[in-house]
Specification:
With 246 residues, this protein is of the alpha/beta class. The protein is built from 7 helices and 7 strands. The model has no long low-confidence stretch (mean pLDDT 93). Keywords: Membrane, Transmembrane, Transmembrane helix.
Length: 246
C-alpha cells in the first residue's frame, strides 16, 4: 500500500520536474548541473547547512591535532572539498590536499582559501572518492568527508581508498546525511523524492544507511553519533557524525 503511494507521488514529482527529465534525456542537464547549477546551489544550501551544523563540526574536528604524524605535522586529505567550507575548522599549519570529482567550484574555493590562510594548501586533485590513485598509500594523517558519501558511486570502494591513504593510527572524519527511521514519515518522503532528487542534485542518494558501511569497513576504532540537522523542506535531516581510526 505504501509502495503504491510512493510510486504515485514519485510520478507527480517527476511531472513537476519534467523539464529537467527532458534535458537529462537530451544529455544537456548533467553538464549544466556540474558546471552551473550544483556549485551555485551548493553554495546557497551549503551556507544554510553550515549554520545548522557548525557546532557539530567544531565538536567533530576538535581532536584533529591529536592525529599529527610523528614529524609533528598534520597532513589532511579532504574528499569532495567543494567550495572549502571545512577549512575554517582545521588547525593552523595543517597541510591540506583537496580533491573533488567536480572542478567547477573554483570561485568559492578561492574565496575560502583566502579567508583561511592559517593552512598550507598542498594540491588540488580532480578525483573521485573511489579512485585516489594520485595519493600514495599511508601518506596522510587524516581524511575528511562531509556530505559526500551520499553521492559516490560506491561507498565501500571509497572507504577502502580512505583506509589505503591513511597511515596506521590516522583518522577518517565524516558528517553525512542518511536514511531516516524506516517506520517514519520522513523515510516515506525520502523514498518519494529519491529519483527526482538524485537527478537534480548530481547523484545524491537520500536513503543510504552509511553507518552500516562504516561498521563493515576495517576501522580499529569507530565513533558514530546519530544527529538531526534541521533543514526545512529538505528530506535530509537525519545525519551521522564521527570518526574512525585506522
Amino acid at each position: 500500500e505504501a509502495g503504491a503511494s510512493v510510486l504515485l507521488l514519485r510520478a507527480c514529482l517527476a511531472l513537476l520536474a519534467w523539464p529537467i527529465y527532458l534535458l537529462s534525456f537530451l544529455g544537456m542537464w548533467e553538464p549544466f548541473c556540474r558546471k552551473v547549477f550544483f556549485p551555485f546551489f551548493l553554495e546557497k544550501i551549503g551556507a544554510a547547512h553550515e549554520k545548522k551544523s557548525k557546532k557539530h563540526k567544531q565538536e567533530l574536528f576538535r581532536n584533529l591535532p591529536d592525529f599529527r604524524g610523528p614529524s609533528g605535522e598534520l597532513r589532511l586529505l579532504e574528499i569532495g572539498t567543494g567550495g572549502g567550507t571545512n577549512f575554517q575548522f582545521y588547525p593552523a599549519g595543517c597541510k591540506v590536499t583537496c580533491t573533488d570529482i567536480n572542478p567547477h567550484f573554483q570561485e568559492s574555493l578561492t574565496k575560502n582559501m583566502k579567508k583561511n590562510q592559517h593552512l598550507h594548501y598542498e594540491q588540488f586533485l580532480v578525483a573521485a572518492g573511489e579512485d585516489l590513485h594520485q595519493v600514495p598509500s599511508g601518506s596522510v594523517d587524516a581524511v575528511v568527508c562531509t556530505l559526500v558519501l551520499c553521492s559516490v558511486q560506491s561507498v565501500s570502494s571509497t572507504l577502502r581508498e580512505v583506509l589505503r591513504v591513511l597511515r596506521p593510527g590516522g583518522a577518517f572524519y565524516f558528517l553525512e546525511h542518511v536514511a531516516a527511521e524506516h517506520s517514519s514519515w520522513r523515510y516515506f518522503w525520502q523514498r518519494v523524492c529519491y529519483p527526482t532528487w538524485k537527478l537534480i542534485f548530481a547523484g545524491c542518494c537520500l536513503t543510504r544507511e552509511l553507518w552500516k558501511n562504516l561498521e563493515e569497513a576495517k576501522f580499529s576504532e569507530l565513533k558514530i553519533q546519530h544527529i538531526s540537522v534541521a533543514m526545512p523542506w529538505m528530506p535530509i535531516e537525519p545525519h551521522i557524525v564521527g570518526y574512525g581510526v585506522k
